[in-house]
Amino acid sequence: MTSAADRVRFDPDGGVLVVTRFDCDTLARLLYMRLVHLVLSRRISRALGESLLFVSTFMEVPARRVVSVTAFARLEDLYRMGTVGDHINGAKLVARKRYRTSAGIFPYGGDWRRIMFDSAEHSPSPLQDYGA
Question: How many domains, the chain?
Fold first, then answer.
């Protein structure tokens, strides 16, 4: 029997999640970052269209942190972010304002049953259109 790590098969067409964290040292900076992220997320969503499946953002007020989870249908869709002026300007603003950030890209690794239980069951990525 193989380990769960051995059963993970990254599929660039299975979608990716990007998790971005913005650490803010004051409540005012936290609220500012949340507002900026709200405005830019809407603009970026319009610019990317169907390439961007969703953006979900939440605040951890006691920790003074904004966390954004963004889903893309395919890995190549993520690269389109580099062509969106609002995203480029937002990244520059974060650097200029000296927010501490971290982010990670999490690609689809396969059906959960195969990874967890070495099952032969397989279903499409939940980030893919089932009608395709």
Answer: 1
Q: Is residue 4 part of a domain?
A: no
Q: Which domain holds residue 16?
A: 10-109
**Sheet of strand 16-23: strand arrangement:** 52-60, 65-72, 16-23, 100-107
Q: Is there a domain that residue 130 lies in?
A: no
Asked whether residue 91 is domain-assigned, the answer is yes
CA distance 64 to 99: 11
pLDDT at res. 123: 83
CA 107 to chain centre: 10
The string of pLDDT tens digits covering residues 79-121 is 898 899 999 999 999 999 999 999 999 999 988 888 889 888 8
CB 82 within 8 A of CB 36: no
How far separated are the first and last CA of the chain, in Å rounded?
Answer: 33
